[in-house]
Design brief:
The protein has helices at 3-11, 16-45, 52-60, 63-94, 100-146. It has 147 residues and is mainly alpha-helical.
Length: 147
């Protein structure tokens, strides 16, 4: 068995494992956004009680998760799509049936991974941008109060 056959066997798993990964990422994204909203509300009410370094650390906490997911989820979704297309074409090549239906069904299932990747990335990027702006605003208010 050569390397191409080994990789093909792995690729024929398709995009389903990728969809599970993206589903997990979407749950984590939502949890981080909710947690950060609650934390920022608490921090804003108690802004005077923080030391500068502690405040910055609290405001930046978990934003890296949103940034990472926002940047990488579309690529993970694309990877799932590529695996799904490989699987669809392989089934087309080995199937006794030939027609548009065989190809289109496989490709439409593969494209779900791309949509799911965007479904994860868009809220993550929106959340990240919101919290970065809110962080800058709170740090500016904090600095003004300390003068």
């Amino acid at each position: 068995m050569n390397l191409t056959e080994v990789i093909l066997k792995l690729a024929l798993v398709g995009g389903d494992p990728i969809l599970y990964i993206l589903l997990l990422m979407s749950v984590i994204t939502l949890a981080v956004i909710i947690e950060r909203l609650m934390s920022y509300k608490f921090i804003e009410k108690n802004l005077d009680k923080y030391e500068p370094l502690e405040l910055r650390l609290q405001l930046e906490k978990r934003l890296g998760i949103l940034a990472t997911f926002g940047n990488n989820a579309p690529f993970i979704g694309l990877f799932g799509t590529v695996l799904g297309v490989i699987k669809a074409f392989h089934h087309l090549g080995t199937s006794s049936e030939f027609g548009v239906r065989v190809v289109m069904t496989g490709i439409s299932e593969a494209l779900v991974a791309t949509a799911m990747g965007l479904f994860v990335a868009i809220p993550a990027v929106i959340g990240y941008n919101y919290f970065v702006r809110k962080m800058r605003f709170l740090l500016m208010i904090y600095e003004e109060k300390r003068r």
